[in-house]
Amino acid sequence: MERATYWGKVFKRFKRHKLAMFSLIFLTLIVAAVVFLPMFIHMDPDKVNLAQALLKPSAKHIMGTDDNGRDEFIRLLYGGRISLLVGFSVTFFSGITGIFIGLWAGFKRGFADNLLMRINEMMMVIPELPLLIVAAKIRFISNSVVKLIIIMTIFGWVGIARLIRGEALSLREEEYVEAAKAIGVPNWQIVIRHLMPNTMAVSIVWATLRVGRVIIAEATLSFFGLGVQPPTPSWGNMLLGAQTYIWTAQWLVWWPGLSILFVTLLFNFLGDGLRDAMDPKLFL
Amino acid sequence: MKNYILRRLMIIIPEFIGITIIAFFLFALLGNPFAELQTNPFISPSDIAALKHMYGFDKPLYLRYFYWFFSMIRGNFGLSAVTGEPVIKMIGRALPITLSINIFAFSFSLVIGVWVGFKSAVKQYSFFDHLFTGISYFGISMPHFWFGLMLMILFSVKFHLLPPGGIVTPGMDGAPLIAQILDRAKYLVMPIIVISLGSIAVWARYTRSSVLEMLRKDYVRTAKAKGLSYKEVLKKHVFRNALNPLITLFFLSLPGLFGGSAVTEQVFSIPGMGRLLIQAVMNNDYMVAMGGLIMYAFILLISLIIADIMYAYADPRIKYS
């Protein structure tokens, strides 16, 4: 007989959640498309050809061309690479940072915990967008994608750290933690072996929902011209001039926006499905 | 209780000072605002020195902080580096515009959101529930600025119904009051829709999960068992208790009333608080940006305290020691 492990049960419940399964499959397809399709379509996404500017969608350019005569479809694919890269890496780095700080603060209490909570309160009080814009204006690295990832990681770990701290606070009172302490397991090993696996559900659901939010934040910053710098395309900076296109070339507004909307929507569905499968009481 | 309020008020002071320090040194990181002037061959070094002196930039950083801090708590937020106007005057001009939009959007989304959330929780998994859960998913998955652009395409480009941005039609000064109000309303419809969509989604989701939690409580079962009508149970036992967590959300979103939605205001070129702040940050207009930030943070700090106190009144089970 098969052993019913926690993750086995989670997988079983998740499979029943049709919308989440559908989202997972679709997201996999989208990631595969933006990673692999450009390898087969030999077109330069950055090549300017003013004679072909602002062409309507046609057989040759299935999504039309932008104001520099660049094919919108190929730029959407390359832009997707950047947007998803930013989404995944910011979530990953801020998640790792937040989880370890949260675990440590919740486990050790005292000074580390106090410091975390004060930082958390300050971050709550200062509005995020101006903060990100100020940070984006500081010149410390020339690659705008790397810079965006660093900035959004710096301002992105606090939320998950607070969540994980809350979990750690209750986990540290569990008997197995006490038992581990009693037999002399060092603190860092308790954190890694006993606390961290028990916070996995929160972390995974948080991360899934987070990717979509990071993509939207990237788009907003890039829309203001402070995110990914052209000519490198991202879904956000493809909308940089969009406000003037609403009169002349509406397809340039549709595609990047629809991509952001669609991907974020799928991540939200997936996150909700994972939450229902792992820990329905969770409210993120 | 009194002690608790007093203690909370005392904590505000160090927190407020902390925020001013963060804001000040963050902007200091942006570097010398006169760097661009120095490369301009038509401006003499002595003029730049005079400008620096006028704005106090010839003094060391920490002295500048203290000077700024102490004049600020006396109500002097300094001058804008771009227009030379007092910051307080610029805020005074932008604030009413933001408030006129946000008070409407806020109350609108509060009523609609709580109603939708309550309905969809009571009829969980019904068509209504699925429909509005779906809509609220769209609400949180869409970049606000893009939604604004889509509305513009629909209402301004396709149907020529509403102006795509701005706040007033030129030449409306002499018009009768009713015409002026109608004119203003035309400009505010789209921004209000954009701001509302996101917050309706948030309110509805919070209310829904809060009501669902209450529906599972033992005292709700007891109330039903002792023969109260379902309506009565919903009104007195479920709805009343489900409101408690919403109080925190209410006061947390209150500062947004004054802060304005930067993205929406930018897209629709509305000269409100959000746009003022964003423009100031983009143009290195330190004084305006810091003034706006500090004001927003201060209102948020106060709101948080009020939220805590209100929570205690609404839910007598909470004890403060």
Proportion in β-strands of chain A: under 5%
CATH class category name of the largest domain in chain B: Mainly Alpha
Order of helices and strands of chain B: HHHHHHHHHHHHH
CATH hierarchy, class of chain A: Mainly Alpha
- Work out the count of structural domains of chain B: 2
What is the residue-mean pLDDT of chain A, rounded to a whole number? 86
CATH topology of the largest domain in chain B: MetI-like fold
Q: How many separate helices of chain A?
A: 12
Helices and strands of chain A: which structural class? Answer: mainly alpha
Overall spatial form of chain A: globular
CATH superfamily of the largest domain in chain B: MetI-like
**How much of the sequence of chain B is in beta strands?**
under 5%
Helix vs. strand class of chain B: mainly alpha
How many strands of chain B? Answer: 0
The Rg value of chain A, from CA coordinates, equals 22 Å
Q: What characterizes the major β-sheet of chain A?
A: none
Spatial gap, N to C terminus of chain B: 8 Å
Give the end-to-end Cα distance of chain A, rounded to a whole number of Å: 36 Å
Largest interface: A-B, 38 and 44 residues
Briefly note the CATH topology name of chain A.
MetI-like fold
CATH architecture classification of the largest domain in chain B: Orthogonal Bundle
Task: Describe this entry's structure for a reader.
The complex is a heterodimer of chains A (284) and B (321). With 284 residues, chain A is an all-alpha fold. Chain A has a single domain (20-35, 61-283), classed as Orthogonal Bundle (MetI-like fold). In chain A, 71% of the residues lie in helices and 0% in strands. Chain A is built from 12 helices and no strands. In chain A, helix 1 (6-16) packs across helix 12 (251-278) and helix 4 packs antiparallel against helix 7. The longest helix of chain A has 37 residues, at 72-108. The two termini of chain A are 36 Å apart. Chain B is mostly helical and 321 residues long. Chain B has helices at 2-29, 35-38, 45-55, 61-73, 87-122, 127-141, 144-158, 177-215, 218-225, 230-259, 262-267, 273-282, 286-314. In chain B, helix 5 packs antiparallel against helix 6 (127-141). The model of chain B has no long low-confidence stretch (mean pLDDT 84). Chains A and B meet through helix 4, helix 5, helix 10, helix 11 and helix 12 of A and helix 1, helix 6, helix 7, helix 11 and helix 12 of B.
